[in-house]
Amino acid sequence: MILQAEPETAKFDEQQEDARLAALASTGILDTESEPSFDAVTRLTAEYFKADTVLLGFADESRVWIKSYWGEPVRELPRSGSIFDMILAEDGPIVVTNIDDDPNFQGRHWPLRRIDPISFAAVPVRSPDGRVLGGLAIYSCMPRRPMAVSELHMLESLAELVSSQLELRRLRKALQGNTKSLRAAPKSSPGIWPDKSDLRVALEKRQFVLHYQPEVELATRKIIGLEALIRWQHPERGLIPPMDFIPAAEESGMILSIGDWGLAEACRQIHQWSNEDSAHSSLRVCVNLSARQFTRRGLADHVEALLRRSGVSSRQLGLEMTESSLVPNAGAAMEVLSSLRRLGVSLLVDDFGTGYSSLHQLHAFPFDVLKIDRSFVTRMTEGEQPLHIVRTIVDLARVLGMDVVAEGIETREQDALLRNLGCRFGQGFLFSRPLPSEKIGRMLRLPGRILPEPQLVPTE
User: Fold this and answer.
1) What strand order describes the sheet that includes 53-59?
2) Strand locations in 127-199, DSSP E?
3) What is the pLDDT of residues 111-159, one digit of tens each?
4) Please, which contacts does 435-439 make with residues 24 or more away whose CB atoms are closer than 8 Å?
């Protein structure tokens, strides 16, 4: 059928979505390498339909994981507004013969790098009980004639081959006694808040918000960047800080969906500020990544798709990660960081000095910025040893050709010491607390983006 509805994320019954995700998890297919059987299907699909690109993917709560492709190399895509969501909304195949003739797709940013598709067709990949787990999609650079019934049946038959392979995989997994589910999470004790359902409701009802804390050039107080920090605007409990819900999000697995929302929201806000004033295009907005986000090998593909969709330049986005997320699997870390570096986003080590990486390991990773943990900045005035630690970090960054941002600056004395040590950039309450985007927007309109002379206890 031809899709007529506007392509947007469908709203699903929570119980049905839980059941769908449980069926997907039982296959153990997410976050695994591609398999020859899937590659054979995408190759046969491309040959039969003479397609420019074929993608086979499975969708969790926030992403479409591409398990096999022919043509355009893709690892994962944002789920919101994706072809998968269109398939799920239709509960069946979709065919668009000419995107240019369909007003619902005009101006749409496709998450493909090498081709700009003009037509596509996609069919669901289902579980044995009929739940839509993923999709098999073909893309072409030219308009296609309407798909014959026999052709549509062929595409569905190829998707059924994938479904059969998934069921065999699930049965093998069950026979091996591996009952671990990718979305299983420890049950919260009665009365413990928030649980997974609370977090899901907050995400669906758009209760999460981003506040932004300026990063300034210490010598001039000019705003050179912003750090995006998540908050939960609860309708009854008020504004909830991240330490009160992020651990629960990590434990339940919701951190992936929440983190993806944060990335997308930051890109949207960057685009808005850049449209308001082209001078803001030089700003870099940094987003913190959880360890679980960072270890996903398709992270660069996901980030690139977000940038393309939002119209934001890669140099406007920074990604922050802690030392502890790097060291346990240095090989995987290097692969992910290298792919992000090729994309052009800035890479920052957050809370540097509190982790357990050695200095000789640091130079191997392609970082642009070290962020000195606030605990060191706070103790700088307490004695020579804390000051020496900060001096060592600044000198190390200079040798490695990296910038340094000092976190947690609260007094003029700390500001002066950091400038004397050669630290160029900083952030902290001395300059500004994290603020909503509207208040930050007013700050950005200050002449030259230069903040007033800082006070000991700044007001909002």
Assistant:
1) 76-78, 63-70, 53-59, 132-140, 119-126, 94-96
2) 132-140
3) 666 677 888 999 999 998 899 999 999 999 888 888 899 999 999 999 9
4) 435/211, 435/212, 435/213, 435/460, 436/209, 436/211, 436/212, 437/210, 437/211, 437/212, 437/269
Stated pTM of the model: 0.73
- The terminus-to-terminus CA distance of the chain in angstroms comes to 54
- Is the CB of residue 258 less than 8 Å from the CB of residue 318? no
Q: Which bin fits 107, alpha (ψ -120 to 50), beta or left (φ > 0)?
A: left
pLDDT at position 105 = 66
Identify residue 367 by its one-letter amino acid code: F
Residue type, 403: D
Is residue 118 a contact partner of residue 143, using CB atoms and an 8 Å limit?
A: yes
26/178 Cα distance (integer angstroms): 10
Per residue in 372-397, pLDDT (tens digit) is: 989 889 999 888 888 888 898 898 88
For residues 134 and 130, what is the distance between their CA atoms, to the nearest angstrom?
A: 11
Distances in Å between the alpha carbon of 29 and those of 26, 97, 212, 272, 396?
Answer: 8, 31, 37, 37, 42
Residue 61: name the closest of 110, 34, 26, 24 by CA: 24
User: Does residue 352 surpass a pLDDT of 90?
Assistant: no
CA distance 174 to 185: 19
C-alpha 195/C-alpha 245 separation (Å) is 9
Instruction: Report the distance separating Cα 41 and Cα 24, nearest Å.
Output: 19
